[in-house]
Every structure is written in C-alpha cells, then in structure tokens.
C-alpha cells in the first residue's frame, strides 16, 4: 500500500473510527489510543494484502472489545484492592459524558458489547447491514434482526422513562 493512499484513508476515516471507539469505550484518551492502534494494524495488514476500508471497523470492533475486557479486569482489580466503589472521574470525562442524556447513557450501558456495536455501526456510523455483517462476521439477516431487537429495547426503555416522547413513541432510524 502506498503512503499516499493510507494518508487518504486516515483523513477520511479517522473521525468516524474515533467516534465509534469513543461510543464503545466512553473515554476520550482510550478512544484516541485505540484509533491510532487501529490504523497501525490496518497499515501493517495492507502491506501484505489488500483490505477494503470496512475492515477498519472490524479491527475497531475487536480492539474496543479487547479494551473493554481489559478495563473490566482493571476495575475488578481496583475494587478488590481498594474495597471501595467510589472512583474519581476526570473532569474531561464528566464533560463528555454530560453530552448524552443520563437516561440514554444508563440504557446503553445495559446493552451487551455486541448489541452496542450493531446499534452504533448502524446509527452513528451509518453503515449498511451488509457492511456491519462483514465487520462482525455475522449473517446479514442476523445483524438486521439484532438491530431491530436493540432498537425495540431502547425505544421501550426510553418511552418507559418518558424521554424524547414524540406522539408517545421514540424513533430510531434504520
């Protein structure tokens, strides 16, 4: 792969990949680090064989899941070490987290990593079900059905809490 072509790919996909990573890990610094790792891995792989840019999202998904697993282990370790549930959150993370409603945030946290990935790839990144199925290595019909289930789950929870009610119903595109 030529250096010019990787620069074009980075320019075009850096923010969407960062946005996806941030939505998954909910931490600015971690999302930045993951974005950098994703492009490095993509570059390394593309020197051996051609991959389309959807593969970036596949790498991003894997890296985010790995990061969440690592984070979960670190939190468990800290909890055991300190035996205290009070953690100090950085001011920057508080600010970024305040951009989202508390209700939506709490509902998104209840979703599995897979459900969150399907939802974010479709709604935030605007990918097609076919692209998402290639990224997650699932059948397109499975991804489509999972998106419908997640959408229904979110709509139900948000309507129950009375958030964003428009004529009694919350609407997600897709």
Topology:
Layout: H1 3-25, H2 28-46, H3 54-82, H4 91-97, H5 102-110, H6 113-123, H7 129-136, H8 140-161
Helix pairs in contact: 1-2, 1-3, 2-3, 3-7, 5-8, 6-8, 7-8
Q: Kindly, what is the distance between the CA atoms of the first and last residues, rounded to a whole number of angstroms?
A: 34 Å
Question: What's the oligomerization state?
Answer: single chain
Mean pLDDT: 78
Radius of gyration: 18 Å
Helix share of residues?
over 70%
In CATH terms, what is the fold-level topology of the largest domain? Rna Polymerase Sigma Factor, Chain: A
Number of domains: 2
CATH class of the largest domain: Mainly Alpha
| Beta-strand percentage range | under 5%
Structural class: mainly alpha
Helix and strand sequence: HHHHHHHH
Which CATH architecture of the largest domain would you pick?
Answer: Orthogonal Bundle
Tell me about the biggest sheet? none
Q: If helices are DSSP runs of H or I spanning 4 or more residues, what is the number of helices? A: 8
Find the count of extended strands (DSSP E, 2+ residues).
0
Global outline: globular
Contiguous low-pLDDT stretches (5 residues minimum) are 81-87, 92-100, 164-174
Protein name: RNA polymerase sigma factor
